[in-house]
Amino acid sequence: MRASRAFITGLGVVAPTGVGTTEHWENSLRGASGIAALPEPGGGGHPAPVRTAGQVSGFDADAFVDSRLAVQTDRGTWMALAAARLALDDARLTPDQEFPFDLSVVTAAGSGGNAFGQREIQALWSQGPRKVSAYQSIGWFYAASTGQISIRHQLKGACGVLVSDGAGGIDALAQAHRLIRRRTGAVLVGGTEAPLSPYALVCQSDQYGISRDPDPCTAYRPFGGAGFVPGEGGAMLMVESEERVRRRGLRVYAEIRSTAATHDGWDPAEPPPDGTQFTRAVREALRRADCTPDDIDVVFADGAGTAVGDRQEADMIRAVFGGRPVPVTVPKTMTGRLCSGGASLDLAWAALALTHRVIPPSVNLDPAAEYADLDLVLSPREAPELHTALVVARGTGGFNAAAVLRGPAGAGTDTG
Amino acid sequence: MRRTVVTGVGVMAPGGTGREQFWARIVDGKPAIRRIQAFDPSPYRSQIAAECDFDPAAHGLTAREVRRMDRFVQLAVAAADEALADSGLDLAAADTDTDRIGVTLGSAVGATIRLEDEYVVASNHGADWHVDRRHVLPFMYQSLVPSSAAAELAARYRVHGPAAVVSTGCTSGIDSLGHALTVIEEGSADVMIAGASDAPISPITVTCFDAIRATTNRNDEPEQASRPFDADRAGFVLGEGSAVLLLEEYEHARARGAEIYCEITGYAARANGFHMTGLRPDGFELSEAILHAMDGSRLVPEDLGYISAHGSGTRQNDRHETAAYKRVLGETAYRVPISSIKSVVGHSLGAIGSIEMAACALVIQRGTVPPTANLTTRDPECDLDYTPLEARDADVRHALSVGSGFGGFQSAMVFSGLGEAA
Prior knowledge:
heterodimer; A: alpha/beta; Peroxisomal Thiolase, Chain A, domain 1; twelve-stranded mixed β-sheet; two-stranded antiparallel sheet; 31% helix; B: alpha/beta; 13 helices; 18% strand; globular; transferase (chain B); Beta-ketoacyl_synthase (chain B); acyltransferase (chain B); Ketoacyl_synth_AS (chain B); Beta-ketoacyl-[acyl-carrier-protein] synthase family protein (chain B)
């Protein structure tokens, strides 16, 4: 695996913490949460399916998507197109000056083009088949973002779409790394989710642990609260081969040292009894990175926000790191859980942390006594020796994934 | 390099459930296409489809599972059960390491039937934009995010290797197997339960293809409606179904004495970067995928004994892929038997790629090439040997299958008889 190394060379963030890397990072360090109350459903007088969510309030889709494309695509794809543009620009990569088969895009998908799909199903049933958009076949489906990004930027290598709920961002990163090993030069990888349309919220409302708390400050508090909130947005990352990094003289955010994935293989409607497979994914990622637990300087936690999920994650950390108080952060407390966008955004956070040697905080936490042994990072923490980050993610249904990133100094290129 | 072989095949296809009924049907070339029975199709332009007569209870699904799973998951479970039984792999055996068994499932549209059905009820037939959560079924999150299908399979078999759904539209079925192949090659698993499933025969999906006239409107003669490469074709016929293959690292399969259908000797995917639904007539990107898939097994054109075509029965597809074959294979393109089983089982979107790979495994094992049904008047632009109407005996050592789909995805995979890798 060492033979072909892969580096993160660009970031594109469209998240409740901001649009663009600068805004996102500054807000993250201020602890400025993007979780806010959702509008009450109008009309029917029935209860809101979900009360609060992470929202990308400042997203101007028109700045990234022209009107002809906008009518063919859902908000989730607008965000993906925007994040892709930002990541390409950040990496100073101009696809039209490249060999198109050397470039790929891989996205993690989750719930698809929700608002688009709901609108067209509504049109079909209330007004008839002739009122359905000619773009329904390409607007709603899970491959919409990958397809549109591939076409727009002429990325004609092996393109992909993986769905593994909240673990998808790391699985997609793993796929990007595989493609680099197989001689693709550069892969745009990540995910964005737009699950806040009415029907999508209804479909999320029966999830184990979803919060009914109307207060954005208390609705999602991993390691001491009682629930999580959903959110929209995510990130795209530019991943390039070592050869390209050297040739283009790029600064890098981080090297992808390893990824690993496991599945709980438990009852699909129930959380698993323990975190055995979660722990195995982490240990496998460390092994593949040639790391010991002592090499890990920060853990970007999954932060399930449920009693079972939090306990299993704490158990995983204790099992892997023993008594060592490794810093643990859950910056997604500022965004909510973004399904397919979540792990991609965590990877972006980790890449920024490694570059700036600062750990972004977890906000609104009120840790329970049983988690007193965890070194939870509650305010931005300068970490001059921050070289290696572990990012973990779990998805509903039993998906576990882990990634190890190494910062620019430790990454072994002289371009940092 | 770790080699990957096929040791189990399970198929739920229109015209008869189970691998053997599927094989008999495609060899017969008898189309399993009819007026849609799942709902009243009269308001729609295309009113026919290739439907599965699928009884979940007969395939061992409990009432609780049926309540929890969309139809595409039910079909996948039935196909996976058959593949595992066929493989002889004993999941409960002490020396079976379930940490080393993973799952990939392809699907283009996931749980659209359930998502649509529940919305229609909860919105009072589309009257309400804000719907009341008290009027939808439980477990709707599992329909909202299709990774639930991979989770169901992992949970059913209590396996703990990497699991994911692959959703690259109509190439999902090939790309899912390709993903599993990569996972085995890199050593992340020894066994992958890999396949694809789609159950798209629902009003919204029928409508979305009506809206762009991609599906045929030959409603009066369903059995003659799917006509790949025929001059009188009028679009594709929607289908449903699932195929799951048990993929296994070669030494692992040998060590347990498994019967081996064939080896996966090549896979490649490319994107056309052209149009979400349109195809360039020169088939360039598809030909690149084919070329690289053949490179994986160092094949020359003469090695190919069969091509399972994408053959959807749209004019642009049939010409696009014909051009791609000519570009890669040169004069040999005229001598390789090609066929499209979509003429029999329809186009089940993300599922069909795995169903066609299942067919390729059986072609290699059984030495018969299934025909393209309904090919009576060849499109003059499509002048290759598409195996019209009648199956043929052929000793096929290497079979190529291709897929092409919305989003610009182009994929190709090669199956080879064991020991035939160059």
